[in-house]
Design a protein that fits this description.
Helix content is 10%, strand content 40%. It is mostly beta strands. Strand 6 and strand 7 form a beta hairpin.
C-alpha cells in the first residue's frame, strides 16, 4: 500500500498570502523563472525656467507624501519617462513594486553637477495608518570620487523597494535636466 505524503505540511507558511518576488532574468539570472521582468527604468526631471532650487517629489504613486505636505510641484517642472511614460510608471508601481540597488544620475550642465549631487534624497513611505515617515536618506555625493573623468555622471547604491507608498524627495537646481536610471533587481507582487 502506497502512503501519500501530506504536501500541505511542507509549504512554507510565509508563502501563503505573501507577496510574490520575481528576480530579474537575463545575463545575471540564468536558471531563474522565464517570466518577463523589467530590469531597468529611466526618467528625466527638467527644471528649465525656474530661478531657485525646488523640491521635487518622484514616484509617490499614491500621492501620500504630496497630500500630507499639501505640496504641488511648480508647473515649470517636467518629469518625463524615458523607458515608459511617467504616468504609466506610477500606475505600474501601484500594482507591482520594484526593488533596485543601483541609481545612476546624469546632469546636462556639468558645472552644476557637484552642487546638485550634494543634495540628499529622502525616501518616504506613506500609509493609511500613519503620517509619511522617513525610511532613509540617500547621498548621491557618495558616488563621486576625485579621479572621476566625467562630472556629469554619478552612480551610487540606493537599495530601495519602490512601490505605491514610496516617494523620493530632493532639491533640484534651476535650469538643470537630470536623468535618473534605476537598475531593477526584482519585481514584488508580480502575478504570473
Amino acid at each position: 500500500m502506497m502512503r501519500r505524503r501530506n504536501l500541505v505540511s511542507h509549504i512554507n507558511a510565509g508563502m501563503i498570502n505573501g507577496p510574490s518576488i520575481m528576480p530579474v532574468s537575463g545575463v545575471a539570472g540564468q536558471g531563474l523563472p522565464k517570466v518577463a521582468t523589467d530590469n531597468y527604468m529611466a526618467l528625466k526631471v527638467d527644471t528649465t525656467g525656474l530661478t531657485e532650487p525646488t523640491d521635487i517629489i518622484l514616484f509617490d504613486a499614491s500621492r501620500g507624501l504630496q497630500i500630507h505636505e499639501n505640496y504641488a510641484m511648480p508647473l515649470e517642472v517636467s518629469i518625463t519617462g524615458i523607458t515608459s511614460d511617467y504616468q504609466f510608471i506610477l500606475n505600474d508601481l501601484s500594482h507591482i513594486g520594484s526593488f533596485f540597488d543601483v541609481i545612476k544620475q546624469t546632469i546636462d550642465d556639468e558645472s552644476k553637477a557637484f552642487e546638485q549631487y550634494a543634495y540628499p534624497i529622502e525616501v518616504y513611505s506613506s500609509s493609511k495608518g500613519s503620517r509619511p515617515r522617513l525610511l532613509k536618506t540617500l547621498f548621491p555625493d557618495m558616488g563621486l570620487h576625485e579621479g572621476q573623468f566625467q562630472k556629469g555622471i554619478n552612480t551610487f547604491l540606493g537599495d530601495t523597494l519602490l512601490d505605491n507608498r514610496v516617494a523620493f524627495k530632493y532639491k533640484q537646481l534651476p535650469n538643470v535636466v537630470m536623468t535618473w536610471s534605476f537598475y531593477v533587481k526584482a519585481e514584488v507582487g508580480r502575478k504570473q
